[in-house]
Design goal:
Layout (H helix, E strand, L loop, with lengths): L3 E7 L4 H13 L4 E5 L25 E4 L11 E5 L6 E2 L8 E6 L8 H4 L4 E4 L8 H16 L6
Parallel strand pairs: 1-2, 1-6, 2-3, 4-6, 4-7, 5-7
Helix pairs in contact: 1-3
Length: 153
Protein backbone atom coordinates (compact mmCIF):
# COMPACT_ATOMS: atom_id res chain seq x y z
CA UNK A 1 0.00 0.00 0.00
CA UNK A 2 1.25 3.46 -0.85
CA UNK A 3 1.80 6.38 1.46
CA UNK A 4 3.57 6.84 4.77
CA UNK A 5 3.26 8.18 8.29
CA UNK A 6 5.62 10.68 9.87
CA UNK A 7 5.42 11.87 13.46
CA UNK A 8 6.27 15.12 15.16
CA UNK A 9 6.73 15.37 18.93
CA UNK A 10 6.09 18.85 20.28
CA UNK A 11 8.15 19.56 23.43
CA UNK A 12 8.13 16.01 24.82
CA UNK A 13 8.58 15.96 28.57
CA UNK A 14 11.33 13.36 29.09
CA UNK A 15 13.93 11.33 27.17
CA UNK A 16 11.96 8.22 28.14
CA UNK A 17 8.88 9.61 26.35
CA UNK A 18 10.95 10.29 23.25
CA UNK A 19 12.50 6.82 23.31
CA UNK A 20 9.18 5.07 23.75
CA UNK A 21 7.66 7.12 20.92
CA UNK A 22 10.64 6.18 18.73
CA UNK A 23 10.06 2.53 19.58
CA UNK A 24 6.40 2.88 18.54
CA UNK A 25 7.47 4.58 15.30
CA UNK A 26 9.71 1.61 14.58
CA UNK A 27 7.01 -0.93 15.37
CA UNK A 28 4.63 0.65 12.87
CA UNK A 29 7.14 1.76 10.24
CA UNK A 30 6.94 5.54 10.57
CA UNK A 31 9.02 7.14 7.85
CA UNK A 32 10.25 10.08 9.91
CA UNK A 33 10.37 11.27 13.53
CA UNK A 34 10.75 14.98 14.25
CA UNK A 35 11.36 16.62 17.63
CA UNK A 36 10.39 20.24 18.08
CA UNK A 37 10.24 22.85 20.80
CA UNK A 38 12.62 23.87 23.56
CA UNK A 39 12.75 20.71 25.68
CA UNK A 40 14.51 18.35 23.23
CA UNK A 41 17.32 20.88 22.70
CA UNK A 42 18.24 20.61 26.39
CA UNK A 43 18.78 16.86 26.26
CA UNK A 44 22.41 15.79 26.33
CA UNK A 45 22.27 12.77 24.01
CA UNK A 46 19.24 11.89 21.95
CA UNK A 47 21.08 8.85 20.56
CA UNK A 48 21.25 7.06 23.91
CA UNK A 49 17.63 6.91 24.95
CA UNK A 50 17.16 3.74 26.95
CA UNK A 51 13.49 3.21 26.09
CA UNK A 52 14.22 3.10 22.34
CA UNK A 53 15.42 -0.50 22.60
CA UNK A 54 15.25 -1.00 18.84
CA UNK A 55 17.47 2.07 18.25
CA UNK A 56 14.99 3.26 15.64
CA UNK A 57 16.79 6.60 15.33
CA UNK A 58 19.44 4.62 13.40
CA UNK A 59 16.96 3.27 10.84
CA UNK A 60 14.82 6.27 9.89
CA UNK A 61 15.37 10.02 9.79
CA UNK A 62 15.29 11.53 13.29
CA UNK A 63 15.29 15.32 13.10
CA UNK A 64 15.50 18.11 15.67
CA UNK A 65 13.91 21.44 14.67
CA UNK A 66 12.78 24.62 16.38
CA UNK A 67 9.32 24.50 14.78
CA UNK A 68 7.63 21.25 13.74
CA UNK A 69 5.94 23.09 10.89
CA UNK A 70 9.33 23.44 9.19
CA UNK A 71 9.59 19.65 8.87
CA UNK A 72 6.27 18.82 7.19
CA UNK A 73 7.12 16.59 4.24
CA UNK A 74 6.01 17.87 0.85
CA UNK A 75 2.34 17.18 0.05
CA UNK A 76 1.79 15.61 3.47
CA UNK A 77 -1.27 16.24 5.66
CA UNK A 78 -0.46 17.59 9.14
CA UNK A 79 -2.70 16.00 11.79
CA UNK A 80 -2.73 17.29 15.37
CA UNK A 81 -3.38 14.62 18.01
CA UNK A 82 -4.72 16.15 21.22
CA UNK A 83 -7.67 16.14 23.60
CA UNK A 84 -9.24 19.36 22.32
CA UNK A 85 -12.81 20.51 21.87
CA UNK A 86 -13.83 20.04 18.26
CA UNK A 87 -11.28 17.29 17.58
CA UNK A 88 -12.51 14.26 15.63
CA UNK A 89 -12.59 10.84 17.24
CA UNK A 90 -10.00 8.34 16.07
CA UNK A 91 -12.82 5.77 15.87
CA UNK A 92 -14.22 7.39 12.72
CA UNK A 93 -11.10 9.03 11.34
CA UNK A 94 -9.94 8.19 7.82
CA UNK A 95 -6.17 8.55 7.78
CA UNK A 96 -4.58 10.49 4.90
CA UNK A 97 -2.32 8.57 2.54
CA UNK A 98 0.62 10.75 3.62
CA UNK A 99 0.20 11.90 7.22
CA UNK A 100 2.36 13.94 9.59
CA UNK A 101 0.94 13.26 13.05
CA UNK A 102 1.85 15.89 15.64
CA UNK A 103 1.68 14.87 19.30
CA UNK A 104 1.82 17.22 22.27
CA UNK A 105 3.57 16.87 25.61
CA UNK A 106 2.08 14.86 28.46
CA UNK A 107 1.91 17.91 30.68
CA UNK A 108 0.40 20.31 28.18
CA UNK A 109 -1.45 20.76 24.93
CA UNK A 110 -0.49 21.64 21.39
CA UNK A 111 -2.32 24.95 21.34
CA UNK A 112 -3.30 27.13 18.40
CA UNK A 113 0.34 27.71 17.46
CA UNK A 114 0.37 24.08 16.22
CA UNK A 115 -3.28 23.19 15.57
CA UNK A 116 -3.61 26.33 13.45
CA UNK A 117 -1.48 24.82 10.70
CA UNK A 118 -2.81 21.25 10.96
CA UNK A 119 -5.54 20.27 8.52
CA UNK A 120 -7.11 17.82 10.99
CA UNK A 121 -7.24 17.53 14.76
CA UNK A 122 -8.03 14.11 16.19
CA UNK A 123 -8.18 12.55 19.64
CA UNK A 124 -8.06 9.03 21.04
CA UNK A 125 -11.32 8.35 22.91
CA UNK A 126 -10.37 7.31 26.45
CA UNK A 127 -11.67 7.92 29.94
CA UNK A 128 -8.39 9.67 30.82
CA UNK A 129 -5.33 10.99 29.07
CA UNK A 130 -2.60 8.64 27.88
CA UNK A 131 1.12 9.15 27.96
CA UNK A 132 2.89 10.26 24.80
CA UNK A 133 4.17 6.85 23.71
CA UNK A 134 0.82 5.15 24.33
CA UNK A 135 -0.88 7.75 22.15
CA UNK A 136 1.69 7.32 19.36
CA UNK A 137 1.21 3.54 19.52
CA UNK A 138 -2.59 3.77 19.34
CA UNK A 139 -2.68 6.26 16.45
CA UNK A 140 -0.12 4.38 14.37
CA UNK A 141 -1.80 1.04 15.10
CA UNK A 142 -5.19 2.49 14.09
CA UNK A 143 -3.67 3.73 10.84
CA UNK A 144 -2.11 0.34 10.12
CA UNK A 145 -5.24 -1.60 11.02
CA UNK A 146 -7.52 0.57 8.89
CA UNK A 147 -5.09 0.35 5.97
CA UNK A 148 -4.26 -3.31 6.70
CA UNK A 149 -0.53 -2.64 6.62
CA UNK A 150 0.63 -4.38 9.78
CA UNK A 151 4.16 -5.68 9.31
CA UNK A 152 3.47 -9.23 10.45
CA UNK A 153 -0.14 -9.56 9.35
Amino acid sequence: MRGYAAIGLHSPKTPENIGSALRAAGCYGAALVVLGGERPKRLKSLGRICTDTSRYYRHAPFVLVDDLRDAIPYDCVPVAVDLLEGARSLFDYVHPERAYYVFGPEDGTLGKSVTGWCRDTIYVPTTGCMNLAACVNVVLYDRAAKRRTLCNG
